[in-house]
């Protein structure tokens, strides 16, 4: 996963631009029906699939992946191993290689100099943990930011909160000089690459992004919990690596916009989507003295008056700068075009024009990566084993099942985007759905995001999987998900490999599970996301891996086998109305007036067409008319293509879905009706007006595909 899912957003906002990102009220309705049936009733094929999941073999796959160097460009061995497992399980497997632009760390250091001339080095190295074998390996990967610029800068520094556009604008309002300074920003909220972009856009010459224990809730060393490896709290020296690509502008290989990175492909200048200033990540132990040096200098946290400004370290989180206190940040990177390997496996169905793609990335920032993404990688090996049990029993899928193990996701969804660009015609002709699993497990709480037509099948199948407590409480993961997620299905923004599919108009879903308040702290993108952590704290016994894997397998099975595709187009109309109501509220709270009647009319046309399609489905089933069922299935497969708006969103043509997209300044969290909403948010009323028409047209195109 490119980004941590932790997006805490509470309290007041200081600026109207935060309304969208930080407000939580929505007209979307949670799914609240309780699961009454116990124990779950499974069909014979479902039973075979669910019983194939074995925590002992999942543990074996997790151990394998947890001891390989899988950094993009270094991951061929794990690719070949993955291909061999899928081949053993009856899939027709090949490696799809692309030659992509990547960057690697060469040399880095940070030091602070005080007005009296004293200089102190700041630690940028993660510790060796005696109990955790992979942390001491010679090929352990240093802390760095993918695609960061090379540079060696010395300057006074300021604290800029989370580094959002609104944070920087607040500093400008307060008269803080950012030009020529180094910006210290805490992780969380928006994607890290956008923090660096915002610092750069405001004239900063370097950036440091640190982890703050204020994001760890109750489970902190300050609250008396022991740190890893002795307890569940974050290790004070854990560092979050990660990419600093400008993700909300364009994912994929930065040098091949819109076309696949084959060897010898022409290369574009990447400078519009990668930073021009150097940056490094820091642990909370390392950053604390730097924050303390700012105490009493510049505006205080109270004067800044922004949500999530002060964190939990022993400092007052003043902005600074502290006169004469300087930071020297040296970061030297090497850019190279390197081969990366997607593993692609086919189990072809009897209907060659209908395809389900199930994907997970394989690359990591560290030797381990047992949450991100080895938990998902282990699940996909076990899933292939389950499908082999079913084919051994005589089953053939109706639709093609394609498994994908993506490379270079961490740098910016590179492997999946290049593959989608390479096969976009076949994909848009045949693909019914893309199912993504990235971090299958970083904690015990299941979370689901999906395009609206997959909400019903997704949550219905939750009821068929026994919750990982072994059913001791007679609970399915539907019940545990109700408790943990309140019945809310997320809207797809970005941050994982579904992005290339969504913005090609393909139904998509993302499944995983993470931690919440009180759960052990997962050290996202740190060398301490390891097999040892997972088997000790994250998922001892690998039961959560098993449950999430059973769910994904049942979902793949139903989409590949059900005679009528379990695609709920009527729910798309329900969601569109809720997004529209959210938009109306947003416009009402802004300084603008905008007529969205055309949008409302298009949604009602869509609703009517969806009802008619459903009626046609019922008729086809009643008559048992195979040809008519096929017609309905193809409408369900294709209607999403209508939502794609050629030319894409303003200044970011990759993002073409008119209904949802990652926010320009979130990179992660989704914005609905992005063209309209961001037009209002960033004072571009003409764009907003233009996108009322474009979104309405897109909805009418989708409605037209459903027309009976
Ligand atoms: C902080 O911001 C809020 C919301 O904009 C405002 O109501 C409040 O008066 C501000 N407080 C101070 C101390 O400026
Ligand atoms: C970085 O700059 C410092 C002085 O600011 C210098 O001592 C050091 O040699 C430089 N490092 C590189 C790799 O240029
Ligand atoms: C499966 O389908 C794909 C895509 O149409 C095709 O390239 C491949 O050759 C097929 N494999 C088999 C074994 O038929
Ligand atoms: C769980 O369900 C079983 C039947 O499957 C029943 O015998 C048992 O009493 C139930 N346990 C609890 C705690 O409800
Ligand atoms: C698998 O589950 C069993 C209990 O069902 C447990 O005893 C065993 O330790 C687990 N194995 C692993 C490798 O986690």
If you had to describe this structure to a student in words, what would you say it looks like?
The chain is an alpha/beta fold. The chain has 22 helices and 16 strands. It has helices spanning 18-22, 44-52, 55-65, 76-88, 165-173, 192-201, 284-293, 301-304, 370-392, 409-412, 414-422, 424-430, 455-462, 477-485, 499-502, 531-538, 543-561, 569-589, 597-623, 626-638, 674-681, 685-706, and strands spanning 92-113, 119-122, 145-146, 151-159, 182-186, 206-210, 242-243, 279-282, 326-347, 351-361, 399-406, 431-437, 445-450, 508-514, 660-662, 670-672. Strands 1, 2, 4, 5, 6, 8, 9, 10, 11, 12, 13 and 14 form a 12-stranded mixed beta sheet that branches. Helix 13 (455-462) packs across helix 14 and helix 19 (597-623) packs parallel to helix 22 (685-706). The protein is globular and about 85 Å long. The relative contact order is 0.15. Residues 4-23 have low confidence and may be disordered. The structure holds 2-acetamido-2-deoxy-beta-D-glucopyranose (NAG) (5 copies). One 2-acetamido-2-deoxy-beta-D-glucopyranose binds at residues 12, 14, 305.
Strand content: 15-25%
Hetero compounds: 2-acetamido-2-deoxy-beta-D-glucopyranose
Structural class: alpha/beta
Biggest pleated-sheet summary: 12 strands, mixed
C-alpha geometry: globular
Overall strand count: 16
Query: Could you tell me the radius of gyration in angstroms?
Result: 25 Å
Percent of residues in helices: 25-40%
* Number of helical regions: 22
Average residue pLDDT: 95
Q: What is the CA–CA distance across the termini?
A: 40 Å
Q: Name the poorly predicted regions.
A: 4-23
